[in-house]
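User:
Hi there, any thoughts?
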Amino acid sequence: MDAVHQDALAFEALVKEENVELATDAMGYVCSFITPTIEQRRFHTDFFVVAVDDADVKIDAGETTDFRWLTPADAIEDNKRGNLRFLPPQFFVLSALAKFERARDVASYFLARPASQEPVPILPHAVALSQEEIVLAYPGGALPCAR
């Protein structure tokens, strides 16, 4: 698994080595985010959903340091209370998912959405509120998405 963290292309080799077939047809595309241009390290991250009945979560002490099952609304509330930290893309995605009552409804919606309705990647941009304070705003948005 460490090889995958070092080289994204190693994922394909891992799938072959483990002799697994990925159920990509069960994955629904949600959105893409691109790190703002003010950042030194930039990422283009795609978000997907999939409904599962059971999952074996692996803690890798890198990307994953802990886990717990929460509804999107509960995760947002924990964030507001300062108990759970996440970045603007996670807040955006969780806010979209919180509009659904059941996990299966989320997966069904994003699986059924025509490709023509898939949004273009979201590129938050820096907005200076003052000489000392910069916030991020979504394209076309007048209000900051994070502080």
Observations:
- The helical segments are 2-6, 10-18, 72-80, 88-97, 103-112.
- Residues 72 and 145 are 17 Å apart (CA to CA).
- The beta strands are 28-34, 44-49, 125-128, 134-137, 144-146.
